[in-house]
Amino acid sequence: MATEPAKAIGPLPLSDQPAPATTVTRYYVLALLVLINVLSYVDRHMLPAFAAQITVELGLSRQQFGLLTGFAFVAVYALSGPVMGVLADRFNPSRVIAWGIALWSAMTWLTGLSRNFLQILLPRMAVGIGEATLHPAAAGILGRLFEPTQRATVFGLFFMGSHIGLGLAYWLAGTLGEAIGWRMMFMTLGAAGLLLALVLVASARFKPRSFAPPVDPAGEGDSAAASAGTVLRALIASVRGNAAFRQAVLGISLLHAIYASGQFMQLWLVTEKGLPESTASSLYGSVYLLCAIPAAMLGGLAADWFARRFHTTHALFVALVGAATWPLVILFRVAAPESTGFYVGMGATVFLLAFPYGAMISLVLNEAPRSIQSTAIAFTMFAANVLVIGTGTYAIGLFSDLLEAQQVAAPLTKALLGADMVVLIAIILYFRLHRKILAHLRSA
Length: 444
Known about the structure:
By secondary structure, this protein is mainly α. Helix content is 80%, strand content 0%. It has helices at 23-49, 51-58, 62-69, 71-90, 93-111, 117-131, 134-145, 151-206, 208-211, 228-241, 243-255, 257-262, 265-271, 277-310, 314-334, 340-354, 357-366, 373-405, 411-443.
């Protein structure tokens, strides 16, 4: 049976009302999840932020580095995500996150002790398992605490933590990296994560109703009581029966090509743009923080306002943002480092993913059944990581090595431009999704 998309913004039926929680509780939980998201992305991007140093010290090729930042992390992360989504839909999602933080923090600490490719590969894979708990479980928590009319705003704020963490990783590497070294940086982050896991466990203990799923008076759709098989069957039904859900998942997945390109940012700035290592990291980190924080904070608000003001879809908002920003990304690839276009384009690579992200997540959740919200986000993260981030990161590194072996000028730049073409496909897909949603609403 086809899964019906959201038809209109309005009062929720009783079975879709947010879980009982005070306003203070809701925003406390949101703030805590944002902080955890910041930490997870600092951990995740500290490796590419120290790319030049680590590749030299451990003797890694670009292909090996692409494997570390791509499939070694992403494949495990993506395969673990659906499992974590089901666990979050069935049990207390805050406890799922807490165990995840403990695992990824311990593995981050071990990364600082690595002496060769294998020793950095294995902890990196385990970090993927731990971090796979966060986004599905957080989506389930926030989806229950806030109404659909607030989703783009709430998820824009939540994923602002991702962008803060990414920018902060580069900024820390550029400003403190030379003083304390990449090994001590990883071990410090690991210790900080273990402390944050304890804070989350304490919060969950005293606020159980904040995390409890809403009860369906009809006795159906209670995700806490549903079996894993029931949850997965509902997901399969959504994928098969709802074309808008498929397009929403594919659109956000393909747009993550800009994220895959970012894994090579420091290495690209050093090797092909001629910037010193610390300057490359601190510059990108500073630009990222300056652009991502306001973009993520305001993007969700802008998307919700745009949809209400013009009586249209979040998909159109995403498509228009992408169409306006994508040419600046291309300018960034070819501009000289001392030019204005270079800095504007660098900001555009950040803005393109950060500003519409809350709207993209909202589109997925609006098309997914209430009872499998965490699983739907886990599936989305699986698709984004397997189809684009893992494959894309490895492909960028591989093609760059092949082009360099053939003595092609600026091989990494050319590989990155190929990834930018995937982003253009995503933008076109969101225009199509907008038309599909409008056609459904007009026929309803």
